[in-house]
Each structure stands twice: as C-alpha cells, then as structure tokens.
Write a structure and sequence with these properties.
This protein is mostly helical. The protein has helices at 7-24, 48-64, 73-99, 115-132, 138-155, 167-176, 195-214, 218-239, 252-275, 278-283, 285-296, 298-314, 317-328, 332-356. 68% of the residues lie in helices and 0% in strands. The longest helix is centred in the first third of the chain and has 27 residues, at 73-99. The two termini are 28 Å apart.
Amino acid sequence: MQNKRLLSLDILRGITVAGMILVNNGWGLSFDMLGHCKWNGMTPCDLVFPFFLFIMGISCYLSLVKSEFKPTSKVIRRIIKRTVLLFAIGLFINWFDHAIEGDLLCFGHLRIWAVMQRIALCYGIVSLFALFCNHKYTVPVIIGLLAVYAAILVFGNGYVYDADVNILARVDRSLFGIDHLYQKSPVDPEGLVGTISSVAHTLLGFYCGKLIREKETIEQKMIALFVVGTVCVIGGYLLTYGLPLNKRIWSPSFVLVSCGLATLLQAVLMYVIDLSGSKLFTIHYSLLTFFRVFGVNALALYVSSELLAIILGNIGVSEVVYGWIHAIVSPLKLASLTYALYFVLLNFAIGYVLYRKKIYIKL
C-alpha cells in the first residue's frame, strides 16, 4: 500500500484546478463566494490557489523520494530547469495579455509576479530544501517562517490597506517599480515578501506528503492527515485574533486554515475513494474521471485556460457566448456562473483528449 498511487491525490488536484478555472472566469457580476475578499476574511474562492500549493508540496515529497532525496546534478538541474520554466510561463502569460492587444513591447509595464511565478518559487525552494535539509526540521522551519512573516506584518504595517505604508507593497515597489505590479490592490497578492509564508504553506504539504508515504495503511494515512488538518485549522483560527485571515498578504492564519482544510479534504477523499474500494469508484466513475482529467494535466490545463481566456476575450467570442447565456439565464450572477461552468467544460474537453491519448504534460 505504501508505494501504491493514491487516486484521491489526483482527484483533489483536479478539483482544485477545475476550481481555479471556475473562479477565474466568471463574466460580469459574480456571486460573492466566487470572488476574492477585498482584504481581511476568506471566501471559498480564496481557497483554490492555496489548495494547489499544498498539493504541490505533497507532490514534491512523493516525486523526490523516488531518488531518495539525493542531490545529484541530474536532480538539481531538473529542479532548476522546471523552476525557470514555470516562472517564464507566468511571464509569458502576462506578456501575452498585452501582446494580443497589439502592445508587443510592453516590458516597461509588464507585471513580474502572478500565480505561476509564485508556484515556481515555492516549488524550487521546497525542492531544494528536500534535497539539502534534514526533514526532521520541516515543522520547525514552517513555524520559524510563519513567525518571521508574522513579525514582518506586525512591525511593518502589513495589514494596512495602503501601499505607501504597507511593508509588502513598499518592498515590491522599491525593487520592481509600481508599473510591474498588480494594479487592483495596494499589495500585489503574489509579491516577493509574501513568498515567505507561501513557502511555509508548501512545506506543510511536503510534510503531509511525508506522512502519506511513511504510513503503511490507508487508515493510518487518514488518521495522520486528520490530526494535522484539525491542529492547523484550530491553530489558524486562534491566530486570527491577532493576525486575521487575509489571502492578499498570505497571512500566517490563512496558511494554517487553508492548509488544514486541504488536509482534511484529502483525508475525506482517501476514505471515499481509496478506502471504499472499486464499488464506489464504479458508481461515481464519471465524476471521478471528470476531476482526474484536470488532475493528471493540472498545470498544463491551468496555463491553457489562462491563454484561452485571453484569446476568446480579445476576439469577442467570450462576450458573444455570455450574451447567448444571458438571453436564457436572466439573473446576472447566475449567468456569470453559467459562463464560468461553460469555460470549465471547454477546458475539460481539451484535457479529455489528452487523457484518452494518455498524454501527460509535465510542466
């Protein structure tokens, strides 16, 4: 059982990626739960990216354990290559958004940070930690990183909604310039300093990957994850009394609560999918296949969804499709949700072709 691939991991990854595509592609006025909190607080939408970083941490452990965490030149080159590739893809998406409108030389105001760039940094740092550090220090490192970041927020006005005062915004502006940052919030939600807590976040996934690998039976894996998830959620909510939940700054409480919820969901999926056996898989085969399609080509489908949204939006297809939907579905929020679901299905169709042909794109 220890070396058997867990279907539930693919399903959780697929649920997360489908959720990322859903919340990113509403059209017009969306339901509140499908939008990010402006500042303090948390909506279901705020969980999808954190869930992905958590799952990536699990995957880092399960992938690198195959090479026994030996820092060979081959493994290090692969990590560096993938880190650079992911970061470059993120920059390309940001550039493409301008280029398709004719602004090919947009480098003076090209946003440096975004989702893929944060994924790249967290992947690279956690992977190198896995190779060069003793894994018994994983939890102390997580606590240390969150403590340091909490101090930065407390003493650097990290919770102040003002770019002139907030230390996260001030660092990004000083290093990269305002033109290269996210413009719809005083703090770039994927900015440099916030990477500290995001690395701790990914390391929590790494630690859970260690538990999944080391525990012999599904029951033992589930219990271990349930304990970790419960501790994280309770600890995170206790922290909110001094450090409120805030995705924009990736607060320590947000790390613990979102990781805890992801851990608990993984434990539930293990019970429902991996432990319940083939009978339940047969009953829910279509639903599991739907999410597995997204899970096995997670990053590839996320990137394709971003590029497809840019293309369809700029050539007018998105507006036309939304018009057709709105003609049938009158309430604006429901029409927006329907459009988002259509877009998820469109990307599922792309992923299903790859899935049927057993093509797995590893970015």
